[in-house]
Amino acid sequence: MIIVNKKSENLAFLVVLGVLLILLVHYFRDNYKTGSTISLLLGVAPNFITAFCFPAVFIGFKNKIEKYRGKINPFKWFTFCTLLCLIILICWEFRQAELDNFVFDKNDILASIFGAILFLFCWPFLRGFVKPA
Predict the structure, then answer these.
(1) For residue 20, what is the enclosing H or E element?
(2) Which of the 8 DSSP states describes residue 128?
(3) Which partner for 54 in 23, 79, 85, 90 could form a disulfide, CB atoms 3.0-4.6 Å apart?
(4) What is the pLDDT of residues 85-131, one digit of tens each?
(5) DSSP output for 58-113
(6) Distance (Å, rounded) from C-alpha 27 to C-alpha 11?
(7) What gap in Å lies between CA 78 and CA 27, rounded to an integer?
(8) What residues form the membrane-spanning segments (predicted)?
(9) Burial class of residue 49 in the structure, from the number of CB atoms within 10 Å of its CB (0-12 exposed, 13-18 middle, 19+ buried)
């Protein structure tokens, strides 16, 4: 990850935390048979966690892109990163419908949307990580 400022370690922590949570969810899904509500939550959790944590990966690239494009508004960059990740997740979900070992699930799309919305609501807390234009 490209260091934006000294607080960037927290963004990296958010990404690592997301990966660890997804691994934990997969462990529980594989090793414990639970009721339908818990199974639903464990089924959509990876999409929710990814939509919430994945945009933090791209936030650190703002300075590199500004070298080629010019100054970028921090909130617009934050929103662009979030929407880009959401589009990637939704496209992946539709792609799963064509693959043999994967399952298309509308609930995964909803979980991705809710995770992205939650990440957008975190802007007041995360704006210190993105240098102003």
Answers:
(1) helix 8-31
(2) G
(3) 85
(4) 999 999 999 998 888 888 888 999 999 999 999 988 887 777 766 65
(5) HHTTHHHHHHHH----HHHHHHHHHHHHHHHHHHHHHHHTTSSS----HHHHHHHH
(6) 25
(7) 31
(8) 12-28, 40-61, 77-97, 109-130
(9) buried
d(CA 126, CA 131): 11
Global pTM value:
0.76
On whether the CB atoms of residues 41 and 108 are closer than 8 A, the answer is: no
Rounded Cα–Cα distance for residues 42 and 93 (Å): 16
Closest CA to 92 of 77, 112, 119, 78: 112
Distances 70 to 2, 62, 66 between C-alpha atoms, Å? 18, 10, 5
Domain layout of the chain by residue ranges: 8-129
Distance of alpha carbon 45 from its chain centroid, rounded? 11
86, amino acid identity: L
Contacts of 41 (CB under 8 A, 6+ apart): none
Residues 12, 18, 23, 28: is their CA dihedral positive or negative?
A: positive
